[in-house]
Amino acid sequence: MSKEALAKVVQRAISDAAFRRQLNSDPTGALRGFDLSADEASALRTGDAGRLSSLGVDQRMSKSFALGGLASTR
Prior knowledge:
Blueprint: H1 3-15, H2 17-25, H3 27-31, H4 38-46, H5 49-54, H6 59-69
Helix pairs in contact: 1-2, 1-6
């Protein structure tokens, strides 16, 4: 489990539309290479801001990810 890896994924999903689309369509492929626990990967797949915050992601980033990051691709 790595807070840094989790934060990198969230930040990249917020700023990179292509990565965001891949995270939505192929989460396993998008997350390959990141050192994430199963719980972290699940929180990313579901876009659960509360879980992301509890896992150490800055609250503003987790909300931005949940509201804009994945929502814009769904």
